[in-house]
Write a structure and sequence with these properties.
CATH topology of the largest domain: Aminoglycoside 3'-phosphotransferase, Chain: A, domain 2
Radius of gyration: 21 Å
Order of helices and strands: HEEEHEEEEHHHHEEEEHHHHHH
Shape: globular
Helix content: 40-55%
């Protein structure tokens, strides 16, 4: 669907680092959705690596989240929107009241357009959508303490509990090959062969050697699926720490957002990604690779929080492959960052030319830390399960 969007009569003041023209365009697009009254304020929101995101405030004080989807990442945005709508319909009749805050667990809801009542619009060839803003919440890029770690785990556990019985044939595979590590490895190998090594720096050469030494790791989960040990289920696809919203007052997790990557997959990728993201106190954007480590003291409450809610429908094989997944997903993300660096930074947003190389180094250092503690992680899963 395409739609014409008129510019606002007066352009809003520029906000954040976005140029005034981009803010004015987003301001006008927000007006095309069915919200109460005109848009009063629009500001850039978050630090996502893929989409452009804005917080929108309407004249009645209600707030929303406006996003422009990156079509290089999501070439069929209508499938992304359809998956989110199906997910929302699946959980709509099973409300969950949270213990500490008394709030309902929430998922962002899509807002239709004023014309045609569709759930997204296209402007200048790019897709936009508007969703509800989950109020009175805070978010962190890294885990703050053990209590926060537990809530991050519970957020993913609650999400899986709600959607594990959603039939996979009702969800489109919006990102074919996403979280299928052998495909990332094959793409990297082709890219590395085309590029050669003449222009590589020392860090790049170290990363190349790191990947070369761990090629056998890539197919671990996919082989288990092919053998029938693991099965496809609905997954979030990106359950990192800063996608978990916490109640501002109680600190309880009340939402898991950024649903663009919801699709059929292996839950081990979700569990591994949650632990990878949450148990590295230095964070994905660490400037000092020496500070990167996998913290078992955070892993225990996070995994305990997850299993508290998700354990009843997990098989013994599901549990067995969690330690494998934690290592694999850190390696996979490092591989993706490194490949994007070699390809000229086409996928992830960068603040400087070597940004993706720096991110890759962080993930590879994290992989090393996970490897050194593999037996402790295995025993932890065994104890908690």
């Amino acid at each position: 669907m395409s739609a014409h969007v008129d510019p606002p009569a007066t352009s809003p003041a520029p906000a954040g680092s976005d140029p005034p023209q981009a803010i004015a365009e987003a301001f006008a697009i927000a007006q095309a959705f069915a919200i109460a009254g005109p848009v009063r304020e629009l500001t850039p929101l978050g630090n996502g690596n893929v989409n452009d995101t804005y917080r929108v405030e309407a004249a009645d004080g209600r707030r929303y989240v406006l996003q422009r989807l990156n079509t290089q990442v999501f070439p069929r945005p209508e499938l992304v929107i359809d998956n989110i709508a199906r997910l929302g319909a699946h959980v709509a009749d099973r409300p969950l009241t949270l213990e500490r805050s008394g709030r309902l667990w929430e998922l962002p809801r899509l807002i239709p357009t004023r014309a045609h009542r569709r759930l997204w619009l296209e402007h200048n060839g790019l897709p936009w959508r508007l969703s509800t803003h989950i109020e009175d919440t805070v978010v962190h890029d890294t885990v703050q303490d053990a209590s926060h770690a537990r809530e991050v785990g519970r957020a993913l556990g609650r999400f899986h509990l709600l959607i594990h019985d959603l039939p996979c044939d009702q969800l489109a595979d919006t990102l074919e090959g996403f979280h299928v590590t052998p495909r990332y490895l094959a793409a990297y190998q082709q890219l590395a062969a085309q590029r050669g090594s003449s222009a590589d720096c020392e860090v790049s050469r170290w990363c190349s050697a790191f990947v070369e030494q761990r090629q056998e790791l890539a197919p671990a989960l996919e082989r288990a699926r092919e053998r029938g040990l693991l099965k496809l289920r609905p997954i979030h696809g990106d359950p990192k720490v800063n996608n978990v919203l916490l109640d501002r007052h109680s600190g309880e997790a009340v939402a898991l957002v950024d649903l663009d990557t919801v699709k059929p997959g292996l839950v081990q990728y979700d569990i591994g990604d949650c632990l990878r993201s949450g148990c590295n106190p230095a964070g994905e954007e660490a400037s000092d690779p020496a500070a990167v480590r996998f913290d078992l003291a955070l892993c225990r409450p996070m995994l305990a929080g997850y299993l508290e809610l998700a354990r009843p429908w997990l098989s013994d094989a599901d549990l067995h492959y969690i330690p494998v997944a934690v290592r694999l997903i850190a390696f996979e993300l490092g591989l993706r960052f490194f490949s994007d660096h070699l390809a000229g930074n086409r996928y992830f947003k960068c603040r400087h030319p070597g940004h993706n190389l720096q991110r890759a180094l962080v993930q590879f250092r994290l992989t090393e830390s996970i490897e050194a503690q593999h037996e402790e992680i295995r025993k932890l899963v065994e104890d908690l399960a």
